[in-house]
Amino acid sequence: MSESSRLYREALKLIPGGVNSPVRACRTVGREPLFVSHGRGAYIWDADGKKYIDFVSSWGPLILGHAHPEIVAAVTRAAEKGSSFGAPHEAETRLAELINRLMPGLEMVRLVSSGTEAAMSAVRLARGATGRDKILKFTGCYHGHADSLLVAAGSGLATFSLPGSLGVPKCLAGLTVTCPYNDPESLKTLLARTGDSLAAVIVEVAAGNMGLVPPKPEFLDVLKDLKRYGILLIADEVITGFRVGLKGAQHYYGLSPELTVLGKIIGGGLPLAAFGGRKELMELLAPLGGVYQAGTLSGNPPAVAAGLKTLEILAENPDIYPKTASLNDIWTSGLGELAKVKGCPHYLTKLESMSTIFFTEGPVFDLSSASKSDLNFYGAYFRAMSDEGIWLAPSQFETAFLSAAFTESIVSEALDKAKKAFQKI
Ligand SMILES: *Cc1c(COP(=O)(O)O)cnc(C)c1O
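Above: inputs. Below: predicted complex with pyridoxal-5'-phosphate.
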């Protein structure tokens, strides 16, 4: 038995499914989860010493690759001075300042510890600000696992074919109106019918949790027009923030949301997330206003140090973005070529350093078109790729990420491996 299998069996006895987040289980692709021993740059090694080129990047945060020396040093320095005080410290303001400089729509920022917390808090703030209870989310968009947001939520739920979660009270789920992503007509109809009862529309500006699905311009046009209903737009940029350029997907697509949710990259691999927006709105939060939100470890020094160092490196080296995007072009077009040679239907989506290969003719523009993918084929693809040493998300409904640690030679190494994998499927 491999060491990874042995560790998995041990974990199964004490941790449900052996994993602390269900998307890590590889059940739907017919494998056991990978127990990782360490990572460096674009690579991870499993507990048996096998090396993989990593396209998961901890599901998005590691835009600079694993164990980046400057981030490791920043975290170490911070931890040596004390890991949490339950009192403010200067670096929190420096991080808020840098976020504000890069994304000026976030006039004020509150730091939290996970994307779930950030999205949940932004929704509460929107409800508090508007005095309305209902929110609208799009089918296949994931905003963390808070009750109100765990409706038609993509990601792990799509992977396991779950419509929602047990344990979410009907009355709460009933306050979440859902609409297909990228469907301007349905959205207009819903807005006409329920617009004045909605506190917020929350959206992944480019969806990354049904696989990567970029927004259509006609869809964005409707999102730009929510003000007349008094609805606040919440842009969930937990994946796309500092991934789709330094100013986020909102700048890329010309949206001006009232509230923005950030996570993943802004924590540099540590638990840190944030939400922010206009000053008047953010000042409704306690202790200034009546919307309560709190956190024992919010803004703790090691997480802030990791996030701050990550954003500093990105801000000082903006060429990281075009560079990873062009490597991603090479990777995705190579992958498309291999799929074509194999003769399997496929549809590629790509945005900067993100991509998904859907095993369907396409086009893929929402969850139902993504769901036409051949999931058995994805499973075979995943297994063949991991045998060759390429680590992908163990689900068709996820996004592959390139990090700045990728080089041309790593991409061609990955394409060589992918070629062998496709031959074996
Ligand atoms: C990952 C993710 C979240 C949740 O973040 P966690 O840190 O896992 O709680 C929210 N929204 C989007 C778009 C995400 O991809």
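The chain has two domains: 3-67+319-424, 69-316.
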